């Protein structure tokens, strides 16, 4: 039995509320169980120097956790004068995951920055950030298309992410914190709406795992991502 009482292939309850901030070109609050992440998209008519003159657009991301997003207060990284290694790794993951679903030629020479701020953490924050980040990105692109600044939709395919792992000897979908902290195997699966893999992060936390178990986790991830993509499409079609 999972601590939450969910079945092995059951996601936590997921909601996506769009247009939650006034100024961002795209925004949403995604809630995956008790993990809540605010995602905003900022459009700029410029690109980084290494992209300038190429005719290609750029999508990048920043990620952070608020001090009381966890059970005890975390120090703001700004007060330490630098980002931690985990933060840098996650925001790079978000950026390259979202870029995998973008036609950068169609986007044109402009940049969209996705900011993902974890309001409350209960496992799977990077997966929620990627899933919500795509929604914010889509809303910003919709505005570009509405104004005629972009003619062809540069978003080739939705991008979503979900965690899977082996908990108490069983393959489970969408780990919450009690499961994540005790999982023998922990993995994050980033996929497109057409079930193409972008990235898989897996590690044996307390036990090794077989190819058959890996396949079980892949099947669970496909199910979870399909459900998330349906929610993304519903949130951005209004």
From TrEMBL:
Question: What Enzyme Commission number(s) appear in the record?
Answer: 2.7.7.56
Binding residues for phosphate, per the UniProt record? 86, 124-126
Q: Does the keyword Chaperone apply?
A: no
Q: Which InterPro entries match?
A: ExoRNase_PH_dom1, ExoRNase_PH_dom2, ExoRNase_PH_dom2_sf, PNPase/RNase_PH_dom_sf, Ribosomal_Su5_D2-typ_SF, RNase_PH, RNase_PH_bac-type, RNase_PH_CS
**Start and end residues of each Exoribonuclease phosphorolytic domain:** 10-140, 157-224
Q: Annotated Gene Ontology MF terms?
A: 3'-5'-RNA exonuclease activity; tRNA binding; tRNA nucleotidyltransferase activity
What biological function has been recorded for the protein in this entry? Phosphorolytic 3'-5' exoribonuclease that plays an important role in tRNA 3'-end maturation. Removes nucleotide residues following the 3'-CCA terminus of tRNAs; can also add nucleotides to the ends of RNA molecules by using nucleoside diphosphates as substrates, but this may not be physiologically important. Probably plays a role in initiation of 16S rRNA degradation (leading to ribosome degradation) during starvation.
Which NCBIfam families does the entry link to? RNasePH
The record's note on quaternary structure and interaction partners says: Homohexameric ring arranged as a trimer of dimers.
Task: Please state which protein family the record places this protein in.
Answer: Belongs to the RNase PH family.
Tell me the protein's name. Ribonuclease PH
Give the source species. Answer: Lentibacter algarum
Task: Output the lineage of the source organism.
Answer: Bacteria, Pseudomonadati, Pseudomonadota, Alphaproteobacteria, Rhodobacterales
The gene coding this protein: rph
């Amino acid at each position: 039995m999972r601590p939450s009482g969910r079945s092995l292939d059951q996601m936590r309850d997921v909601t996506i509320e769009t247009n939650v901030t006034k100024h961002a070109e795209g925004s949403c609050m995604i809630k995956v169980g008790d993990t809540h992440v605010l995602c905003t998209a900022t459009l700029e008519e410029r690109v980084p120097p290494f992209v300038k003159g190429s005719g290609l657009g750029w999508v990048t991301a920043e990620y952070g956790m608020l001090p009381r997003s966890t059970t005890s207060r975390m120090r703001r990284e700004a007060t330490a004068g630098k980002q931690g290694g985990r933060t840098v790794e996650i925001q790079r993951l978000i950026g390259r995951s979202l870029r995998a679903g973008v036609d950068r030629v169609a986007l044109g020479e402009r940049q969209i920055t996705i900011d993902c701020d974890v309001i409350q953490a209960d496992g799977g924050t990077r997966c929620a950030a990627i899933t919500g980040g795509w929604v914010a990105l889509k809303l910003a692109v919709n505005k570009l298309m509405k104004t005629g600044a972009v003619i062809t939709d540069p978003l080739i395919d939705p991008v979503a992410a979900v965690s899977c792992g082996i908990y108490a000897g069983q393959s489970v979908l969408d780990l919450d914190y009690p499961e994540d902290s005790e999982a023998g195997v922990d993995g994050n699966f980033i996929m497109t709406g057409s079930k193409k893999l972008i990235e898989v992060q897996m590690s044996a936390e307390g036990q090794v795992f077989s190819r058959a178990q890996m396949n079980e986790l892949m099947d669970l991830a496909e199910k979870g991502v399909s459900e998330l993509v349906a929610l993304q499409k519903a949130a951005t079609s209004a």
